[in-house]
Amino acid sequence: MAWFEGAAALAAALWIVVLLLPWQPWRNREVLEPQPERMADTAALTVLIPARNEAAVIAQTLAALAGQVPGLRVVVVDDGSDDGTAEVARGVAGLRLTVVPGAPLPPGWSGKLWALEQGLRHIETPNVLLLDADIELKPGMLAALLAKQAEGWDLVSIMALLRTRSRWEKLLMPAFVYFFKHIYPFALANSPRISWVAAAAGGCILVRTEALRRCGAFASLRDALIDDCTLATRVKALGYRTWIGLSHGVVSHRAYDDLETIWNMVARTAYTQLGYSPLLLGVCTLMLGWMFLVPVLAAAIPATRLWGAAAWGAMTLSLLPTVRFYRLSPLWALPLPVTAAFYLAMTWSSAWRYWHGIRSRWKGRVYG
To answer: What keywords appear on the UniProt entry (predicted)?
Structure first.
């Protein structure tokens, strides 16, 4: 039992270290909220939206853009939709809208990047906003993004506010943001002095067209599954400044009502995040088990209860800012060990699929 007491004590110490890290990835210091009082100058901007079977959400996305500023340039690439996405898009008024029929997917490309590559050919403005088809910008958000760029940032990205209506969404989606911020600490990613950490969230990226073309645009990323962070890495490597943050003004309407939908979303790239390395998968399993599951077991044993409670309390405290950002009850931070177990299982599922020849599966396409 002495060895387990030592393991529990180490877990508590690791959580204290996480809370005291100088870059504090668990806090929400990088936030950009809408500025409805500011008028957005969009003369130098085009919005580029890849869309595959997005008829259910594309109208809301485009209507929100039309409400930002009259006559905004928008390019929608219809990536082989069979649900009338293009027709729905054309029905939205108030935009300078171009709908591009997507060409068949060439070998070696991911679908989203091929759609963006085709759309980029229609961009003639100095700035482009890469926006997912399910993302709604609240009034004043476009002005806030452009104001942030004017501070000297060449790429400004916002991690969209994810849906938290169902119980599964409340349990797992804030933690998705939480884990992302620990893998890509925003404070480090935003520092021009640190070249080895770069991050972006693909749902909303405002980037200078020059930077996009200089880094090879989407052709250089053609098979990347974590394309947003790869793009940020390429842009930052050229000396451009990148910034990523959170906002209540960039809202995803993608529904994740059941566990299977969330599972497939995470499993799509989880093993990619580990570089398809069995060694890193083993290290990840060990660390998640040690930091998230050992405290639960320790809290149930009288001899180690103090260490277990300390570790569990620290990990709960680390998730609280994200839960509060999502305006949920603080009680949703308590089951973080359960949430971590789900994410570990999703990661193993991702590895299992890869070992069986499926690198990723998304939007009806399988990437081997």
So the answer is: Membrane, Transmembrane, Transmembrane helix
pLDDT digits (tens, 9 = 90+) for 256-296: 989 999 999 999 889 988 989 999 999 999 999 999 999 99
Note whether 233 and 271 are same-domain residues: no
3-state secondary structure the chain: CHHHHHHHHHHHHHHHHHHHCCCCCCCCCCECCCCCCCCCCCCCEEEEEEECCCCCCHHHHHHHHHCCCCCEEEEEEECCCCCCHHHHHHCCCCEEEEEEECCCCCCCCCHHHHHHHHHHCCCCCCEEEEECCCEEECCCHHHHHHHHHHCCCCEEEEEEECCCCCHHHHHHHHHHHHHHHHHCCHHHHCCCCCCCCCCCCCCEEEEEHHHHHHCCCCHHHCCCCCHHHHHHHHHHHCCCCEEEEEEEEEEECCCCCCHHHHHHHHHCCHHHHCCCCHHHHHHHHHHHHHHHHHHHHHHCCHHHHHHHHHHHHHHHHHHHHHHHHCCCCHHHHCCHHHHHHHHHHHHHHHHHHHHCCCCEEECCEEEC
pLDDT of amino acid 53: 93
- Strands 242-252 and 155-161 turn out to be parallel
**Is residue 40 in a domain?**
no
CA torsion, ordered 258, 265, 79, 236, to nearest 10 deg: 140
pTM of the model: 0.93
187-217: pLDDT as tens digits? 999 999 998 999 999 899 999 999 999 988 8
- What percent of the chain lies above the pLDDT cut of 70? 97
With respect to residue 49, please indicate whether it lies within any of the assigned structural domains: yes
Q: Are residue 138 and residue 19 in the same domain, yes or no?
A: no
- Number of separate domains in the chain: 2
pLDDT in tens, 211-244: 999 988 888 888 777 888 999 999 999 999 999 9
List residues bridging with 137 in a β-sheet: 250
